[in-house]
Specification:
The complex is a heterodimer.
Chain A lengths: L4 H21 L3 H25 L4 H31 L12
Helix pairs in contact in A: 1-2, 2-3
Chain B lengths: L2 H20 L5 H21 L3 H25 L12 H24 L14 H11 L1 H23 L6 H27 L1
Classes of the chains: A mainly alpha, B mainly alpha.
Chain lengths: 100, 195
């Protein structure tokens, strides 16, 4: 007996909300990508808990896929951030307003 | 409360606290290091939920690879400490109200859903069982994911060294000058937004 499943959902929800806050409020591209990472991490926690709740390994399989998606997303995202920094010399997303 | 339950609450508190500290840091390096602490806690949570292989992968990929990639980018690029302006009160107050409504609704729904009070039973899926399950039931998804990783590799390679390498110096200087030139009127427009 560990804890009720609802507590796992609440913990995952709190971490997801922190990630949303970080991605929306911070005006720094790197912090925005970090917020997306936090959200993916919260989803992974909830998937693992649900896998234990229904004793079905599908949840853990999805955590594996989330890891792969997070890795590819951060590779592309950081590449684009470095490229945009070379073009504009800034991390502020409001500076990226040239459509070319 | 069993020992497992105590560990769950302790680790959850550490994860939430470290994440909350991380997202409010101005210094990017501090934020990334606090997030590494948070990911170690997440790995322990996964271990508690009976997924030792995923816990190891979480440490290796999230804390070891992704966060170090962030650290590389932060170190590679000279980040001047910019003054981040918070949104004015009239902008974030409605957002906070709506977010609070969603939060209360979600918590009520979570606790009222039938079956959500069922206690989790401590079980372990060994890496062998997990690998057999994945490669027997989800082998096609694994192939799709491998193609996704390959595409990410190609995209990162193209972005990093494609046409940006030749003109990087000139565009960098031009971009810097552009940013300098744009700075005054950006400040002016920000001031207008404040008004």
């Amino acid at each position: 007996m560990i804890v009720p499943f609802s507590h796992v959902l609440v913990v995952g929800g709190i971490i997801f909300a922190l990630g949303v806050f970080c991605a929306v409020v911070r005006r720094n591209l790197i912090m925005m990508v970090l917020g997306i990472e936090i959200m993916l991490n919260a989803v992974a926690i909830v998937f693992a808990g649900a896998s234990l709740r229904w004793q079905n390994l599908d949840g853990q399989t999805f955590v594996l896929f989330i890891l792969a998606v997070a890795a590819s997303e951060v590779a592309i995202g950081l590449g684009m951030i470095v490229y945009a920094f070379r073009r504009t010399g800034s991390f502020d997303p409001s500076n990226f307003n040239l459509l070319r | 409360m069993t020992l497992y339950g105590f560990f769950f609450y302790l680790i959850s508190a550490v994860v939430i606290g470290a994440t909350a500290i991380a997202i409010t840091r101005r210094n990017l390096v501090h934020a990334v290091v606090y997030l590494i602490v948070s990911y170690f806690g997440t790995a322990m949570l996964l271990y508690l939920f009976g997924a030792p292989l995923l816990a190891a992968l979480e440490v290796i990929i999230y804390a070891g690879a992704i966060m170090v990639l962030f650290l590389f980018v932060v170190m590679m690029i000279r980040v001047e400490p910019t003054e981040e302006v918070m949104f004015p009160l009239s902008q974030w107050l409605p957002a906070a109200v709506f977010g609070l409504i969603y939060l209360v609704t979600a918590i009520v729904v979570i606790f009222e859903t039938p079956g959500s009070q069922a206690s989790l039973i401590a079980m372990v899926a060994t890496p062998r069982q997990f690998a057999l399950y994945v490669f027997e039931q989800h082998w096609f998804s694994i192939e799709v994911i491998s193609i996704l990783l390959l595409l990410a590799l190609i995209g990162a390679l193209h972005l990093g060294s494609g046409k940006g390498a030749g003109e990087s110096l000139s565009t960098h200087h031009a971009g810097a000058r552009l940013a300098e030139r744009r700075d005054p009127d950006r400040g002016a427009s920000a001031a207008e937004e404040e008004i």
